[in-house]
Amino acid sequence: MTVKSARDRIIDTALQLFEKYGYHGVGINKIIEESGTSKGGFYHNFKSKDELLFIIHDTFISYALNQVGKAVENNETPTEKLSQILKSSAENFTKYKPHQTVFYQDHTYLPEEYFEAISKKRDKVRDLINNVIQEGIDKGEFLPNLPVPIIGMTIFGMVNWTYKWYNPEGPFSNEEIVVIYADFTLNSLLTEEAKQKYQFSPYFEQVQAPQK
């Protein structure tokens, strides 16, 4: 069994406490106590509680940026890229659900320097998605005259807000939910000609509703 370092124990503990009580509901002493570390150990690894919050935020947004970047780089057509962007978000609902919760409920508490660093990565994710949508329009796969920023934010919000209601014990798995997202989005954006092209591809997958 791998023994976690003091730094990792502090991050994991802070993540759980911030998710449950909010950033301002948790003091450094509580993090130290719950993580089984010391004040010296805390300040050896982190300059402040603000830096700890930044690290949690950066872990999530860096993962999201990496996944979107790989989807764009490793796929050829806009349809394939957008489908993979949506499907790559499956881990967000499970492994990164606590990070998402803290990210969205506590991001306004980041000091300006940290807030700007996180905002730059968040904007890169948004821009990558918008670029894929614009590419789809330019190549005739997506409907013309789509309001790209609105469509991009709709997709961004649809995926990222799932943490609010997703239930791992519910009737649909995280993988099934993102298949539904991909199918819904592509059917909304693709031209009729493009739909025929992709009709029998794995980019259109149906998830059956659970039997009552």
Automatic annotation (TrEMBL):
<dbReference type="InterPro" id="IPR050624">
    <property type="entry name" value="HTH-type_Tx_Regulator"/>
</dbReference>
<dbReference type="InterPro" id="IPR041490">
    <property type="entry name" value="KstR2_TetR_C"/>
</dbReference>
<dbReference type="GO" id="GO:0003677">
    <property type="term" value="F:DNA binding"/>
</dbReference>
<dbReference type="Pfam" id="PF00440">
    <property type="entry name" value="TetR_N"/>
</dbReference>
<dbReference type="InterPro" id="IPR001647">
    <property type="entry name" value="HTH_TetR"/>
</dbReference>
<keyword id="KW-0238">DNA-binding</keyword>
<feature type="domain" description="HTH tetR-type">
    <location>
        <begin position="4"/>
        <end position="64"/>
    </location>
</feature>
<feature type="DNA-binding region" description="H-T-H motif">
    <location>
        <begin position="27"/>
        <end position="46"/>
    </location>
</feature>
<dbReference type="InterPro" id="IPR009057">
    <property type="entry name" value="Homeodomain-like_sf"/>
</dbReference>
<dbReference type="InterPro" id="IPR036271">
    <property type="entry name" value="Tet_transcr_reg_TetR-rel_C_sf"/>
</dbReference>
<protein>
    <submittedName>
        <fullName>TetR family transcriptional regulator</fullName>
    </submittedName>
</protein>
<dbReference type="Pfam" id="PF17932">
    <property type="entry name" value="TetR_C_24"/>
</dbReference>
<keyword id="KW-0678">Repressor</keyword>
